Structure formats: structure tokens, C-alpha cells
């Protein structure tokens, strides 16, 4: 499968928009500020094409929380922030009880918790809409040079064709930007689109 129909793209955009809205609501509660979302951008890529430029990541270092979901189809979901922004989010999560210089000590635990809340909020919303049950793995946190982190994630996905759903998250008071990205293999994409087609036919 190398393309999506316009109606499939519209349905995917709407479904992930609702799921991301639930995730944004969860993030807003955590950081105590309004979270704005972009409209999801749905695109198919070869895994070899995925890099910082493809995802519009303009920072040399990246923090990524990845979680795997399994069920009628399998997917990897990622929450991406630039490393310095991740530190600020952790600081907000801890209600400023810890100085920004001490936040690194809590970074991995806090970011995994954050990713677990946001990614599960998004995927559970999608599962509800498609009447599916999805199981999730424990979140895994990576930090490092942006393209190195992305290469590691893509290598672990180990599939030639990947569906990227790119959603910008902007936290108002800190002018932060993060990204929600979903990766599916070609076989999982076909299964996922079967459920999307059922969803479309039921509208």
C-alpha cells in the first residue's frame, strides 16, 4: 500500500484530532496551562525518509517518549520535545518544588509518566471511536542528538513504510512546542485502514 484515499485521510485526521484533544486536556491539567493543537497532518513515508527535517524538528537535541500499542493492529506512539523544553515541562509537573537546575535528576521518570498519560489518552480515545481494545507497553524514554534518537526509534520499528500523524502541541505560557507522532508498519496500516473504512461506512 503506497497511498491513502482522500476520505481515509479526512477520517484519520478527524479521529486523531479528537484523540489529540483528549491528550491536550490531560497535558493542560498536568502543567496548569492551556494547550493548543495543530490540525493533524497525515502522511506516508519510507522509514529511510524520517529525519529532523521531515518532522520539522529544529533543535539539535531531542527528548522522546515512545510507547507501543497492540491489538487488532500494532502501532508505536511518540511524544517528542526538544531537550530543554522537556526540562521545563518536568519543572511545571513538579509544581516548581524543585529548582530547574535539579530537574535532570527526575527527567526520565517524569517524562515517562507524562508520555504514558498523554499517549494513552490519545490512543484510548481512538480505540473508543473505532470500538477496539488496544494494549500498551511501558513507556521508554530516549534523549540525545535529534537524528540519532529518530534513527534508533525507526530502527526499532523495523518497517519500510510508516504512517506519520504529526500534531503540534503548544503550551501557552511557556511557548513550548511538542509533537505527537504515530508509526505503523505497512501490515498494521492495512489493518488500521480496514477499521477506518468500517468507521466511514457507519457515519
Amino acid at each position: 500500500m503506497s497511498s491513502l484515499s482522500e476520505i481515509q485521510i479526512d477520517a484519520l485526521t478527524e479521529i486523531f484530532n479528537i484523540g489529540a484533544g483528549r491528550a491536550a486536556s490531560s497535558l493542560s491539567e498536568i502543567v496548569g496551562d492551556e494547550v493548543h493543537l495543530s490540525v493533524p497532518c497525515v502522511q506516508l513515508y519510507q522509514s529511510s525518509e524520517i529525519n529532523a527535517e521531515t518532522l520539522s524538528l529544529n533543535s539539535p537535541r531531542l527528548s522522546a517518549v515512545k510507547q507501543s500499542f497492540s491489538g487488532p493492529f500494532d502501532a508505536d506512539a511518540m511524544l517528542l520535545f526538544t531537550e530543554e523544553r522537556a526540562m521545563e515541562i518536568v519543572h511545571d509537573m513538579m509544581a516548581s518544588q524543585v529548582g530547574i537546575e535539579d530537574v535532570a535528576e527526575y527527567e526520565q521518570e517524569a517524562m515517562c509518566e507524562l508520555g504514558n498519560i498523554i499517549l494513552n489518552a490519545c490512543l484510548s480515545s481512538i480505540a473508543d471511536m473505532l470500538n477496539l481494545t488496544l494494549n500498551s507497553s511501558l513507556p521508554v524514554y530516549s534523549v540525545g542528538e535529534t537524528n540519532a534518537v529518530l534513527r534508533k526509534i525507526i530502527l526499532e520499528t523495523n518497517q519500510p513504510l510508516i504512517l506519520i500523524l504529526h500534531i503540534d502541541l503548544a503550551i501557552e505560557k511557556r511557548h513550548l512546542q511538542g509533537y505527537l507522532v504515530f508509526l505503523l508498519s505497512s501490515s498494521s496500516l492495512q489493518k488500521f485502514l480496514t477499521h477506518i473504512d468500517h468507521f466511514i461506512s457507519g457515519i
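The CA atoms of residues 80 and 143 lie 10 Å apart. The mean pLDDT is 82.
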